[in-house]
Amino acid sequence: MEFVLSAAIGVLAASGIWLLLRPRTFQVIIGLCLLSYAVNLFIFAMGRLWLGAPPIMPRGGFVNPAAYADPMPQALVLTAIVISFATTALFLVVIIVSRGMTGTDHVDGQER
Amino acid sequence: MTLSPEHLIIAPILIPFFAGALMLIYDERQRRAKLAISLAAVVAMLLSSVELLVRSKGSELTGGNDIGFYLLGDWLAPYGIVLVVDRLSAMMLVLTGLLALPALIYSAAGWHKQGQHFHTMFQFLLMGLNGAFLTGDLFNLFVFFEVLLAASYGLLLHGGGQLRVRAGLHYIATNLAASLLFLIGVSLVYGATGTLNMAHLSNLVPGLADQQRHLFHAGAALMGIAFLIKAGIWPLSFWLPTAYMAGAAPVTALFAIMTKVGVYVLIRLSFLMFGPHAAESSGFGTTALIAGGMATVTFGFLGVLASQGLGRMAAHLILVSSGTVLAATGFVLAGAGASILAAALFYLLSSTLATSALFLLIEPMSREEGGIAALLALTADAYGLDEREEDRQPEVGLAIPGTLSVLGLSFGVFVLALAGMPPLSGFIGKLGILRGLIATEAVSPWLSGSFIALLILSGFATLVGLVRIGIQTFWATEGEPPRVLALEIAPVLALAGLLFVLTIKADVTLRYMQQTANAMLQPSVYSEGVLGAPRAADAPVAEAPE
């Protein structure tokens, strides 16, 4: 499982960075999306990998903390997903405006 | 729960939040109402920040370091999010308020009419800034960074135009990538230490196992890169001049503090996590801060010399200012003494005020035909930029007499402050840094010597660049002087007045900064205070007000 997850994060991040460095705005935004997927998976993995362990403990009585997953990264990743979704949407709007104003989808607003 | 004075700590976040939300209800045509709400909110925010500052100075009994805490949701410190006010954050809060008020008054001269929801975004930006200064939790810091960045994306595009959209595109892409780096860093730090609370981290760092320490260092380095991008350190600062040139004047005047958020976080986290107490981790990142800061100063002053227009020059001056503070922080982290940090903080205060005022001056100074306007157009051609829209609506309002002399005098004040020439505050800050550098023996004399040379050289370059613009604008002009509204010149004069106050009251301010710097070098006061902050639910009922 560790290998699959780290390979997934690596591939997502690598393709994200490659796309981020491309000159077309559409490629840039797809690159940012892929990068944020990689980052979200990474945050999730930082809570260590668990199988079938719930993150929330029942109320009262003695509970064995080892049987539960770390809830913190799950909460963090939720926040990170929402924020990166919102900012990506905002970036998309700017990209469309730029396309409309300059007539090109080059990130510099003109072909070189 | 009654409204006790401790709730004041969250006021600088809540006031702009509610004011900004309230203004969304108003129609875009009701600008006067929005302006009134906005002004009231900024004044209230400034007053509460000043009260927090006075409180953080504390009494003699506590050694002059009163740290205020606010446990959100009344959860105990390492488990919940805590807001912390100490001297440094109180100072930054006041600085934010002092920049926001003139910028807002300036925007009333017509700038706020150029686009939608100016005041709402302005307030949300302030909320994000104040939150970033107050929070004591790394992930909460990320959230407030995103709040201020989202608002700044909107504000940068305020007024529209192709230039702004293009600059905004680069600005947003850079900052989104930086935020992702920040997230990776935060999660690595959490994975290595199991906490996100800055105070808790500061306690845990000395006892980390080797294996975790490497992970922790990697996380801290990634976070550091994200903050350095925001602070505009050299190889990562190419987005900055274009973005700052493109923004509307009141927006960029407030943006002057945006790089300082990065600087603030670096100062805060460096001393908490990598201070002298941190065993093997102490001094981590020192080399990067010193080298990066010095490279930034070099790039900044070369940019100042190469700039043809005041806008580009002011943007490079921002780089000089944050580079100077970053390098000075690096020197202090290497053990060069608290007095350098104190002087650097003083310099930060003075240079931020002066650059902000410079951004407000750009447009009135280049308003007339010919002179600098022609030069700007020429530069715009050379850089392949499009001309700004020139056909602005003729404004109604009170024009001031003797425009050129008022503009010229205030410009002169900012030149002196930025170049660090004797009578004004910039000199006091720079002198303090220089004196500390000469006295120190913690770093090699070559290193401190080259930073001294850079500081003097950058001051000289600033003087040459700004005086060149000044001569072109004020002495070599023909025809009618520009028409400048009183609403536009009043904030500039207010900022100039603040610089004078800072100079006259330099002993008080410097003493405050010295105490701040001493407190930064003793992170145990901060961390033990945060972790020992009592819950309101546990407090005795008849609690005496502080």
Automatic annotation (TrEMBL), chain A:
Topology within the bilayer: Multi-pass membrane protein
Protein location: Cell membrane
Transmembrane portions of the chain: 6-21, 28-51, 71-97
Ranges in a coiled coil: none
UniProt cross-references to Pfam families, sorted A to Z: Oxidored_q2
Entry annotated with the keyword Transmembrane helix: yes
Keywords associated with the record: Cell membrane, Membrane, Transmembrane, Transmembrane helix
Recorded GO CC terms: plasma membrane
Gene3D superfamilies in the record: 1.10.287.3510
Superkingdom, natural source: Bacteria
KW Cell membrane (keyword) present: yes
Family note: Belongs to the CPA3 antiporters (TC 2.A.63) subunit C family.
Protein name listed in UniProt: Na+/H+ antiporter subunit C
High-level lineage: Bacteria, Pseudomonadati, Pseudomonadota, Alphaproteobacteria, Rhodobacterales
Automatic annotation (TrEMBL), chain B:
Pfam families according to UniProt: Proton_antipo_M
Listed transmembrane segments: 6-26, 35-55, 67-85, 92-112, 132-157, 169-194, 214-236, 243-267, 287-306, 313-334, 340-362, 398-421, 451-471, 483-504
GO biological process: ATP synthesis coupled electron transport
Cellular compartment(s): Cell membrane; Membrane
Membrane topology: Multi-pass membrane protein
Top-level taxon of origin: Bacteria
Protein name: Monovalent cation/H+ antiporter subunit D
Single GO MF annotation: NADH dehydrogenase (ubiquinone) activity
Primary localization class, coarse: membrane
UniProt family annotation: Belongs to the CPA3 antiporters (TC 2.A.63) subunit D family.
UniProt key word Oxidoreductase: no
UniProt entry keywords in alphabetical sequence: Cell membrane, Membrane, Transmembrane, Transmembrane helix
Function of the molecule: NDH-1 shuttles electrons from NADH, via FMN and iron-sulfur (Fe-S) centers, to quinones in the respiratory chain. The immediate electron acceptor for the enzyme in this species is believed to be ubiquinone. Couples the redox reaction to proton translocation (for every two electrons transferred, four hydrogen ions are translocated across the cytoplasmic membrane), and thus conserves the redox energy in a proton gradient.
Gene Ontology cellular-component terms listed: plasma membrane
Domain named NADH:quinone oxidoreductase/Mrp antiporter transmembrane: residues: 136-451
Keyword Transmembrane among UniProt keywords: yes
Database matches in InterPro entries: CPA3_Na-H_Antiporter_D, NADH_UbQ_OxRdtase, ND/Mrp_TM
